[in-house]
Amino acid sequence: MNAESKIDFIASPINRLAGELRIPGDKSISHRAIIFASLAEGTSRITGLLNSEDAKATLNVFRNMGVEIIYEDDIATIHGAGLYGLKAFDEAFYFGNSGTSVRLLAGILAAQSFDSTLTGDGSLSRRPMQRIIAPLQEMGAEIFCSEDGTLPIFIKGGQSLKAINYKLPVASAQLKSCLLLAGLYADGITRINEPQITRDHTERMLTQFGGLINRNDMTIEVQPGSLKSTDLTVPGDISSAAFFIVAGCICPGADLLLLNVGINPTRAAVIDIIRMMGGDIEIVRSDETAAEPVADIRVRYSPLKGIAIPEQLVPIAIDEFPVVMVAAAYAKGETILSGAEELRVKESDRIEAVATGLKNLGIEVHTQSDGMVVRGGEVKGGEINSYGDHRIAMAFSIAAINATAPVTIRDCFNVNTSFPGFVESANELGCNISIKTDNV
Predict the structure, then answer these.
(1) Which of 182, 239, 294, 369 is deepest in the core (most CB within 10 A)?
(2) CA–CA distance from 136 to each of 106, 133, 161, 163, 275 (Å)?
(3) First to last CA, the chain
(4) CB 83: neighbour CB atoms within 10 A?
């Protein structure tokens, strides 16, 4: 299967869903583990690394800069180059579909002695980059992007960065992390103020690697200083688990056990939201002693009801909303999502992609600039365009579980960016998803 393949999913209704599933490693944590281990002094061993196209993009960029990385099964042994040991690469850095990789690495590359060009695939090349350009320029970086504010990004090396006090204009963990990474190279203390709490994997991992970082209420401070190697384990991805949390809730008689899922409180709001809708979700084993808390999650079928999703939960469930809105389609009454403008600038315009898909399945949806209102009802079969967005493709595969007829989802190739083996995992639990591949 190659990038020239056209991949569609055909998901059919089922009458049984049960079993255990070990969720693949967390994508956000995998990226950061590769980044910090590569910048550290010494050798780090990362267990449970997500074997996805996005994580491979981050691995490849550091390999291109001379970092020695041995990756076998789900374990990566990374011989760190230190903050100042990265080497120039003669070609443009290619980040595929990974927005996290390109935004976080921009903060690092802005401080290097060599020039860099950052590129990506067609989808990534449409996503906004100006939000990281402006503050990095304020720090003294010579960094530019296209006139449209998108890739490619061009960075002139050899610049000295200075610390800044910066108030994030949007609640964005990627923007925050980009500036914290740049702050490792800056002269002074870099302070980042968040309008709302966002996922804190960068702060937690910086601490693990010996970074000088501190949080005071909504402000994070980072000082320059070397990082030290460490060994760590990547928990299962709550964003991937979310598809099966919703699946369990909408399939009559379902009983699922999802193993070793990360439940970082800045990421696990999807559990709170589905519980508010009436979801039967039980934490049956938890371990909060590690840097990233983990748990086994049991999910059983439960009739859902519509809710107004609390806006304070939106930034910490932003990636899960495609499948949360599928849950809303099966819920009694209206589910209201607002304060989610960030969904407009993901791999697709997820507000429009979800709304169009649900309408195609017979569900009443009204969109707003920052969200949507979904009225639950009978989910029918139909055809969905995923717009090449992995989370849209997987969400509508789950929507078919209790539909009246099969659902065909077009353009699903990018599912491998975050959840390789999604179809096989779903089918092991009782789903009925087939893959249709055409070479184009």
Answers:
(1) 182
(2) 9, 5, 8, 10, 40
(3) 11
(4) 20
| DSSP sequence for 324-383 | HHHHHHHSBSEEEE-S-GGGGGSSS-HHHHHHHHHHHTT-EEEEETTEEEEE------EE
Is 319 considered catalytic here?
A: yes
CA gap 218, 157 in Å, rounded: 32
Helix (H, G, I), strand (E, B) or coil at 179: helix
Domain edges within the chain: 5-25+235-439, 27-233
What is the distance between the alpha carbons of residues 32 and 37, in angstroms, rounded to a whole number? 8
Q: Which of 117, 217, 135, 225 is nearest to 172 (CA)?
A: 135
Give the Cβ contact number of residue 434 at 10 Å. 13
Residue 234, phi-psi category: left (phi > 0), alpha (psi -120 to 50), beta (remainder) = beta
Q: Which of 26, 237, 319, 389 is catalytic?
A: 319
Q: What is the pLDDT along the chain (440 residues), one digit of tens a residue?
A: 444 568 999 999 999 999 999 999 999 999 999 999 999 999 999 999 999 999 999 999 999 999 999 999 889 999 999 999 999 999 999 999 999 999 999 999 999 999 999 999 999 999 999 999 999 999 999 999 999 999 999 999 999 999 999 999 999 999 999 999 999 999 999 999 999 999 999 999 999 999 999 999 999 999 999 999 999 999 999 999 999 999 999 999 999 999 999 999 999 999 999 999 999 999 998 887 778 999 999 999 999 999 999 999 999 999 999 999 999 999 999 999 999 999 999 999 999 999 999 999 999 999 999 999 999 999 999 999 999 999 999 999 999 999 999 999 999 999 999 999 999 999 999 999 999 998 65
Residue 120 is given by DSSP the state -
Please determine whether the domains at 5-25+235-439 and 27-233 fall in the same fold group of CATH: yes
Task: Name every residue whose Cβ is closer than 8 Å to that of residue 84 and which is 6 or more positions away in sequence.
Answer: none
The top-level CATH class assigned to 27-233 is: alpha beta
Taking every pair of Cα atoms in the chain, the longest distance, rounded to a whole number of angstroms, is: 61
Strand ranges across the sheet with 364-368: 334-337, 371-375, 364-368
Q: HSE of 150 in the Cβ direction (CA atoms, 13 Å)?
A: 11
Collect all residues with Cβ–Cβ distance below 8 Å to 220 and sequence separation of at least 6. 176, 180, 191, 192, 194, 203, 213, 214
